[in-house]
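RETRY 2/3 - previous attempt timed out on the joint model. Re-submitting the same 994-residue input unchanged.
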Amino acid sequence: EKADSGKPINVDAGRVSQDQKTGRSVLEGGVRLVQGTLSLDADQAVITEQADGEQTVQASGRPVKFKQKMEGQEVWLDARSDKLDYDSKTGDVKLTGNAWLKRGQDELSGSHIVYNSVTEIFRAEGNASATPGTDGRVKLVIQPKKKPESQAKP
Amino acid sequence: CGFHLRGLGATTPLAFASLNVTAPAGGLGDVLGRQLSLRPDLKLLAAKEAEAVLAVENEAMDKQILTVNKSGRVTEYQLIYRARFSLRQGAVERIPSTELTLRRDYSFDENNVLGKEAEEQILVRDMRSDAAQQIIRRLAALKPAAAPYTPVPAAQ
Amino acid sequence: EEVSGPTVLQADKIEGTGNTEARASGNVALDRDGRRIEAQWLKLFETTREIRAGDQTRLSQQGDLLEGGELYLKEDTRTGELDAPRYRLGQRQGRGDAVKLLFEGKDKYRLNKARFTTCQVGQDDWFIRARELELDYTRNVGVARNSTIEFKGVPLLYSPYLDFSLDGSRKSGFLSPSIGSSGSGGFELIVPYYWNIAPNMDATIAPRLISKRGLMFNNEFRYLGQDMAGQLTVETILKDRVYGSSRSAFRLQHEQGLAPGLRTGLNLQKTTDDRYFADFGDRIAVASQTFLPREGYLSYSHGNFGAVLRMQRYQTLQDPTNPVAVPYARLPQLTVNYQPVLPAPFRLDLNGEAVSFHHPTQLTGERVVAYPSLSMPMEQAWGFVTPKVGLHLSHYKLDDGRSLSRNLPIFSVDSGLYFDREGQFFGKDMVQSLEPRAYYVRIPHRDQSAFPNFDSGVADFNFAQMFSENQYTGSDRINDANQLTLALTSRLFEADSGIERARVAVGQRFYFDRQRVTLNEAARSQDTSASDLIATAGGQPFDHWWMDGAVQTDGNGHQTRKAALNLRYQPEAGKLLNLRYRLDRLTDIKQIDLSAQWPVSARWHVVARQNWSIRDKRSLERLLGLEYNGGCWVFRMVSQRFVTSGNQTSSPFFLQLELNDVGRLGSNPLQTLKESIPGYTKLN
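RETRY 2/3 succeeded.
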């Protein structure tokens, strides 16, 4: 959610090294980061504080796990990938390498996915030169929507 | 020469003690009912209570020209009687839907139309009784289901 | 809109916003509910469930396949369109192409400027080319508008409206004009029009142009209702140039259940003149009709009680070269039979009949018959004995003022034993039975020479008649009897299933008194104490061989009165040889009848029949035909020549092209082939 970036970040990592001048801190040896509804698990992550208080996060892991509540809906966003880049100002989440994203019931998988949690626009690409036998294509699974009137129920 | 009275000695019992005959009225079902009612070892019951149900699925009578004389007049007809039946014991189909075909020829006399019509009825009754006997012999040939009947895979 | 499963969209690239819209590009595949759409690009609008795809798309579901250019599809209503479609649909894999395909609901398509065939891919032997083609796989009906049928590139038939079955089930598909020659009318053209009025009602209107006679209309109307069914056929020719005036035939057949056990029916047939069927009938069965029934009945049966009220008369078609007696009309006839339940082993049969006989020229009157009988069937596995005693009472009230009655007791005892022996026959466990049977009948003599003959006749002497009390059918003559019928039957049936595989029987009747009651035949001479001897045999001696034969000789077996032999060899469907021999001294018949259906090459099949009268040294029926099986069509060419009344012959010629499942062009020989060649099987 938009409100997350205003919340305190609490971080639990193996090693933390901060560089006050550039606002960059590097976390290694298994990272667990929680900020409001946003939570991130990765092997290693680099967080850069921006001047206007927003942050960008570059994380990598086997895989990186990312979870955040959608803006104004009771719908959660779940993501996993080898590398993940998050920019709280634009709301873009960029997943590279074995990317997998679950939005509510629908699932999207491919080699790299870009998703904006504010505009809900997503772009996914397969990787044509995928290892043989694995279908290098992107896959989107949309669960059947119940009748609109039944959706109103909590 | 090896012949023995049927049924004496190892009298193989019927595969069921009670039977229901479901069939349209006034046809093969009645003949089967009459013949089966003579068997002391079998009770005819309603479908719900009977151990097995013998269904006469349909009966058809067809009349075809058999012989014409030199001026094209029909001198012989052939009656073709077809009856389709099946036997179900509980959930198991002991005899799948099978069709019996019987034929009787009779001469046609143009000056005795009503007489020949009555003769057709005699032949129909004769074929029905013949079909009933053949069906009853097929029932008698069924092995009693000792254990709950496991259908033998149809021999290809 | 039925609940659908998840949608799986795969592609090289997918973009979209939330769950409302997705755009995929690069070997796209969309799977939902067993349906798959493949394309180069695809747009999916989830909220409105619409799909757009291109530039080449391919839709597949179970066996159905649609390929084409741009696709627009609204999934929930299954409506939309596909450009330049190529399709292969339905159980029978009807296929073709078109300029545009419109989806009009589940399994319903409309195609513009389309081609349709049931030939396999790669074999384009025939097409229906239509400006508009509707394929409705919910009712399995195809409709082609402004269509021509093209066979090997040659347009054969244009027709504004044409419907045909998509699963090969409905009537014979579209009915095409039929060209040929039949009966004695010379060249003929029939252009039938099939009108499917409602799911349970249809009509066929067929103008029939007969070169020598004129224009005729054959109309047939069929209906089906709640426990009711019927068919009305009206044929009429306004001016028959050969006959000189209008002629027509009418037939109404109706069956209906009014209430449980209560049924009624009509069978009314009429023609304007006696030679109608001889002139217009194109099959022996039609041309040889002499007595047209006109009857209605009301029948009630409940448990072991049954009653039938019937009104029946016949129109007799007289052939001057062979005048026949006009049968009595029964207006009305009431028959009743009732078997009350008695404690075993007794059985009571109450049969009664009351008839009012009418006739244009002969003596008429009323007759009432009652025949109660008591029998005691005692049956065991090894045999049976059935004594029976009855009282046959009849009373006549004749229109010449006389009233006659005849009451006589009838006594009979039927008995039989069953012997079995198990053995190996044809390499199988079989049981052979030996069933001796004895049937004694005693009926005292009553003089019936003054009695009229409304409905009696001498029945054929066969096994059925041998074991009945009266050798006369109907009720006007009860034969005096003091006779014993002996018969021996042996059956071969499979031990494990009880299926009867072969049967041999021989029987004869022995008379202990001379014959005193006759109808119109001469009585047995004094010293004949035994009837004709009858022997029959039938069954399946070897695989693919069927045989049945019967011989009837005089009492001591010296002189053959009747003989018949049927032999069939049918190794597989479409391969068949029949031999039939018939000898009958009484009706002076001595005939041999050979018929066959045999493949002469991979595609060509011969059908043939020669029914030859040895006695008259002439052919009764000759048929020769060729059938070519083209895989998805069959061509038939059949010529036939059979004798008709008045020493004339009729030589119909049939030429037919059948497009599998879709319809037939030309005159249809199939009914003739089924009647002339027992065991004939259709190639497609």
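Chain B has two helices and six strands. Closing ticket.
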